[in-house]
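Predict the assembly for these two chains.
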Amino acid sequence: MELDSDVALVRRAREGDYNAFEQLFERHRALVYRFAYQMTSRRDDAEDVVQEAFVRAYQNLHRYRDEAKFTTWLLRIVTNLCTDQARMSQRRTALEQQEAMGALDWMTIGEQHDPVQNLEDDRRKVALRKALNALPAHHRSVIILRDIEEREYPDIAAILGCTVGGAKLRVLRARRALRDRIAPLIGEEK
Amino acid sequence: MNGKFEERLARLAFGDVTPEEARGLEREAQGNPEAARILNEFRDMRAGLRDLGADVPPDQLSKERLRDAILGQGLRPAPVPVASNRGWLWMPVLAGALAFGIFTFRGGSGEKAPMVVMDDSRGPSFVAQLPEPTPTLSLPTDVPEVRAASSRETPAKPVLKVASQPTPVPKQTRRRNRPRKPIVIDSARYAFDVRPNEVTGGDLEQKGEPSEVPETPKTDPTPVAMTASAPIVLIDSGKNSETGASTATEVGTASNVLVGG
């Protein structure tokens, strides 16, 4: 049973009640972590993103407007962080991308802590994961929000800062881009 | 394959169409092998993405780690934006306080010292107006000196200044319930019979014959009428033992004052 709503906890946190902010962290960290993990495909990177997102949220609590959902606001922060991280990582992962195209790329994608487990993953899932990671951040984020986290279009629009129609269009384009990337991989697997 | 048709197939595969539209697209796809292939690809993609959602390792996040990260950056709880919501309140409050202060002090400073109407034997009555503000009020010790001072071009050193021209008595100097102009009678010059019981204060009993009726000030177009309810101020010949100034007494009404005998 929720004792306090997100809005109430945010207000208390603004007034200096750090325990209220910790409650918000405990309540939403799983959702934020799942999204960050899908965006980064690495647990360590996802944890760093989650921590940074909550630090930024704490720092900018005074900017949060009560009329928006707290999770929407939080996911927006995470989206921006992941986009920035992807942009930074693109500059130094040219070599990593070459490795990703290699034969043993299934070893580096997903759960690095258990390569044996990776061997048992479904090929389609591996190919899909690879294709998703290869998408640009702005396509990847909407695929994750809609087709993995199954968020409604108004929420996605609020997170992206666009209209509902714009959100639907972005999702549609991202799906087509993903399909274009996965098709050759599935063909290669076959 | 038409791009728009492919988009509709994608929407069908991901459940973003109405039931009626779904039935129509299904019929179209059945008759088109390529459309059916694309529809299956999108459906497989949707199923695979759902599986990816469940394939997330547990995190190792903790509240302590977050707290360390926040404190490590030297962050404090975000200040309560009181000013942003209510900052505008200080302006009307300040304006109200200023207005209150202005009216209060104006009311205090606006209250002029009591007007003393003195009779001048040489002509119309002068209205002695005390300078403002006047921390101490000191009347000249000798009435004739005041008269002499009034004739000078420059006012004498005594604080009391006599206006060179008579000015009408301003409204705020009038006493309450005493709207009529006071009638000034110099007791040193005029003898009158005053019934002691009806005199408000001071010994005003003097014998003698009244020689004149006080003249109306020249600038005052309306003659002073000694009506039954008009107040009368009597200036005594005696002096105040403390200040040395002449004393004046206001008579309640003129009903008991006989002028002329």
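Strands of chain B lie at 116-118, 126-129, 161-162, 183-186, 193-194, 232-239, 246-251, 257-258. The helical segments of chain B are 3-13, 19-30, 33-54, 63-72, 82-86, 90-110, 143-151.
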